[in-house]
Amino acid sequence: MQTGLLKHAKGSSYLEIGATKVMVGVFGPRQSDRKLGFSDSGRLQCEVRFTSFAGGSATQTHQSAAERNMSAALTQALAPSVLLDRLPKTVVDVYAMVLESGGGELAACITAASAALASAGLELMDLAPACQVVCSMRHSV
């Protein structure tokens, strides 16, 4: 894992776990859109995308169902660790790009995004590491 690689992001990280490679950038906090109304706490907005050579399609304009599900799971995993009540009327954007898909992409995204949030200097309760366990059963004939 390396942090601080993206110059235009407030925080970033790159993570390799086995054959899985993920890059995450954190942007913000920025002022929330007025149409969303007043909020006493900030909002975490996460987006996960796959590159075309990682099994997804980088040319599509809309997220696939798998990307939407991973984005929602990433938000759900990270939101409790970020002190959003100290960021009223703001939005923190987290963009994760799966560069190579070798299994365990969600766990890699959660771990890399947590490190990127820390790299951005946001106040956190703690880091949110993740892992994925797979049970492979072999039957002998």
Automatic annotation (TrEMBL):
One of its GO terms (molecular function) is RNA binding. Residues 1-123 form the Exoribonuclease phosphorolytic domain. It is found in: Cytoplasm; Nucleus. The keyword RNA-binding applies. Belongs to the RNase PH family. It comes from the Eukaryota. GO terms for biological process: nuclear mRNA surveillance; poly(A)-dependent snoRNA 3'-end processing; rRNA catabolic process; rRNA processing; U4 snRNA 3'-end processing. GO terms for cellular component: cytoplasmic exosome (RNase complex); nuclear exosome (RNase complex); nucleolus. The keyword Chaperone does not apply. Keywords: Cytoplasm, Exosome, Nucleus, RNA-binding, rRNA processing. This is RNase_PH domain-containing protein.
